[in-house]
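Two proteins follow. First one:
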Amino acid sequence: MEFAAFAERAGEIEAESADLEIVDHVTALLEEANDDLEVVARFVQGRVVPAWDSTTLDVGPSTCYEAIARAAGTNVSADDVEEQLAEVGEIGEVAAGYDFGGQQGLSAFTGGGADDLTVREVHETLTDLADSSGSGSQDRKVDLLFGLFNRCSSAEARYLARLVLSEMRIGVGEGTVRDAIAAAFDVPASRVERALQVSNDYGRVAVVARDEGLEGLDALELEVGRPVQAMLAQAGTVTGALEDWEVAAVEWKYDGARVQLHHDPDGETRVFSRNLEDVTDALPEVVEFADEHLEVSTILDGEVVAVDDAGEPLPFQEVLRRFRRKHDIAKARENVAVRPVFFDCLHADGEDLLEAPLTERHARLESLLTDEGLSILWHTDDPAAIESIDAEALEAGHEGIMLKDPDSAYSPGRRGKHWRKRKPDVETLDCVVTGAEWGEGRRATFLGTFELSIRDGDEYATVGKVATGITDEKLAELTELLEPHVRAQDGREVDLEPAVVFEVGAEEIQTSPTYSSGYALRFPRFIGVRHDKDPADADSLERVEALRKL
């Protein structure tokens, strides 16, 4: 498929506002993709690799700007590109404004010239770019991108630049591609959904749906070593859970970081984060645990918890120190020890368990593990018993409890009512909104992540970001409210003058070097806009420090 044809379809999709029509356009694109279907199904979402693959292009904005500038001509610099971006606000628009194709250089080695650029060539070049590392790798990345931009038309450059910086912004989300695969190849969307859950690869599922139909989709299974999205929880109450299920499964909610363990006793053991990043090297204790306790191939869901010398849990911030460590792991391990706790079993000894009820999955987990590393699951219909379990969890230094439907299947990537987290909140804070980010997919036209600040004397100090608890309708209202206060924009990021105050709830206030206040709101959630308050009335650093001490 020519990349120009892909760009043309992407332009049609971007110009469409109705969801059903967008699905129709994506359906047509998949039908036209032919041998490039696997790549096209990813490109249309702004992906270069499968969702389960943590490989990144590792291309910063400056690298992309340099490549665009070189392809645009000798009179254009990377600074010129950045200035244009500040004025226009979107990298695709900037790239589309240049006349490419006349420059010479290393594009000769990447197939540069007058011949038409193809989707396959773009994918192969971006794959080479992702593989570039070590000394001189940044120069090589610029060369490879230059070779692509040098062959681009205006429309092609628009979507190449967005693809490189993961800012496709054409309104295509995962559900859109799922429905388009179903429509293009005449298979039920529910079966496509199941295939996506076990494979976490839209490109592969699209090809299987086209070439093997329903039988092929149903044959797809989990693979040890290929992570799937984690099942998620929503906030809930004990009363609501017992009304819905009669009996609730209850377990402690640990103050740790989510991990997915993939263990092959005859092969490798890999550990993945909630975001599907491979964190195996950073967590050797988890690998050692698997090698010691697991005798069959398994995929387990759980958390790693930082612990002190006595085995008592440490704050979540300590776990992050381990996750982020790339070098000198042995020293990091001496400073911060971690232990895994597993609460679900997705696969065991060749058998997929996603569709099995929670009680069966946990029973299989108990057959694999002893008390060490195993999260206890209680079953009760007594609110007083649940309160007691909650109190014990808090007393032990954990976050609270999880309430789960005993009969529920495991639904990767879903935040449904089958898992509910019950944790105490701190008092709400009134925070000034000082920045935001444009959303992605169907939320691309909305501001979707909001930077929160508190008063610090006459200035404002950041204390976190909030993106949860906000409906599409509310996002549209907030975008309309905040847009008049935009001071500057850099890509998706927007700088806002202090004008609007949000009421925000959070589960905890932590010390943090990430934000200028020195504190961070853990799991902040949007409650509402304080139309009755000006920024001068927002909460102060002093109040945050006081709440931290409670």
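Second one, unrelated to the first:
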Amino acid sequence: MRETMPQLEKLFLPRSVAVVGASPASDTISGRPLKLLREFGFSGNVFPVNPKYRTVAEYPCYPDVASLPETPDVVLVGVRASLVPSVMESCAARSVPFAVIFSSGFAESEDRDAQERILAIAREGGVRILGPNCQGMVNLVSRVPLSFSASLEGGRILPGHVAYVSQSGAFGFATFAMGNDRGVRFRYVVTTGNQADLDAIDVGRYVLQDPEVRLLLMYLEGVNDGERFLRMIREAHERRIPVGVLKVGKSPSSKAAVRSHTAALTGDEAVWDAVFRQYSIIPMEDAEDIVNLGLAFGAPQRPNGKRVAILTTSGGAGIVTADRCNDMELSVPTLSEATQEEVRRHIPPFGSSLNPVDMTAQIINDPEGFPKCLRAVLDSPEVDMVVSVHSMITGEAGWSMARSLADAWGESTKPLACCWLIDEEHGGLFRKFLRERGVPLFQSPRECVRSLAALAQWESAAPGKTFLAEGSDGERESAWPSPLLPSFSGTLTEYDAKRLLQAYGVPITREVLCTSLSEARDAAENIGYPVALKVMSGDILHKTEAGVVALHLRGEEELRNAYGRLLERARAFAPHAHIQGVLVQEMIESGLECLVGVKRDPLFGPIVAVGLGGVYVEVLRDLVLRKAPVDEPTALNMIEQLKGYPLLAGARGQKKRDIAALARLLRIVSEFACAEPDLLELDVNPVFVRAEGEGVVAADALVLRRGGIS
């Protein structure tokens, strides 16, 4: 069932704004909003509210919200926390649509109930809240500043195509200022603070409706509903809008002890990383990424591939850039002979027409040299993107190159970026010129290449991509079979866990649960030696640690000796344990050991994992995660990303394993996880992957269910 889109038009396009706590001191939290509204040329009505004054900033001032001549669309609240409830009561009485609360001292403080009080008042009166403890927002394209941030002063900020939503007000507007200074053209900047009501997802979904938005950037400290977040990502992809997220606080803090291999290896950070990869979310690590992605994705050009041409006036800078391209899996192909011939006409004989194209600093002696080389590589069919790396080119030569770059960028259908390695004194005016004309200008080759790589990666991965989603629509939800877990009481033994998996189509070992030695002898004869014996008890989850497993039993005498010994160990290890029986199981003599597992994440639901077993998962942590469900192509892609994949693919003359069967098992387990809402953890380990065409078999399994853990 789709979530209703929040109606935020009056917040982003208000016809009137009241400022409660308005002050004539224009550099304060309660005074700057009026200053910004005037500087931006806000065309609606502005109502200062403060009983101390008759006028503020040449506007008539009113004692309270009740006395306003009309009901404003937005009320900006900048008074101390103790006064906010009464302000919200006045807003509710006047049916004010939106309140932006700058005030702090709510959920982030010791008085956590204060936030619930103002939220209750707002809900009763139909008022939507942005904040509290936020720095507000700005709609740059419509020139609506609803903020007290000094980063907006001057009112001369050019609007563009980047939407930015930040839970942190200070970080949000500080990084906006950095980006604006470096040439990023934002369209909206919204800070959500404590998110008592409207949150970053509400705002993100709204701004995605604007057809002029080319990129959504988000700073997130927390998400309350993973499925809502992913629904927003799907909506962005439907509109071909990339989303970059700086997610902080991914590392696990205080966690309960986990009981399976899978859960031990899938902490918060690993889950977020998996979701980012699966849903083509662009990860960001710091403020520089916000700036650099804004430059790359804010431009209109998009690449058709990952091939980069590098033009440089410094051979060393060209080599550095080429190395960074290699690091980021971008190709720097040798240019065709026709393109090289055109380039050679305009560079000195000691330059290079290959790729990187080393024009040398002598290019400044030919005013037509640089634009001709630039045009040659932009027109080349073997090039998808162009990076122009300039060194200390100054004076009229510098201006000539800057104008040529700006002209080429304005005409190009391919991404064109520039690194101008020069100090502010000699190059500040050139860089200012390029930024004003929208040319993506980066501080270093590394920043430039990382941003273009993100651009190319998103273009190749996201457009047209479909995502399976747990319960995302009625048809998909009805496709899951009826849950079977409720028929299994308590914590599941290996025997019960494998019976459950078998019901979903997972191949398991041949085995018999026995309650006597005679039953065990008969079972072993029917299965065929060698066999394994395992004591089954929901009170003994890790059987090897308890010493209740015997492997490679090759005859009746070995079986008889092991049977009694294992039961004695079980009673010594857990005297009050309920013994379900002893499992007699075939020994799997061939196949590569793998692991398939599930952990139910509190935000994103079931997360499915695959890895090679043994040392690969426990020591090397060779595990790949995705949000369930996954289809078989996605499962195959997960397997191919394993560090140990060559062992499955038949490296060094070994047999190729049945990778298709492992992918099928991964798909089944992911659907099983979605069908069983009581499933907390699943560890199918080992899964033996046999030779190609011979399938897979699950040799052991652990299932932890909600309500079944003692």
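SUMMARY FIELD: The first helix runs from residue 9 to 12. Residues 253-266, 471-478 have pLDDT under 50 and may be disordered.
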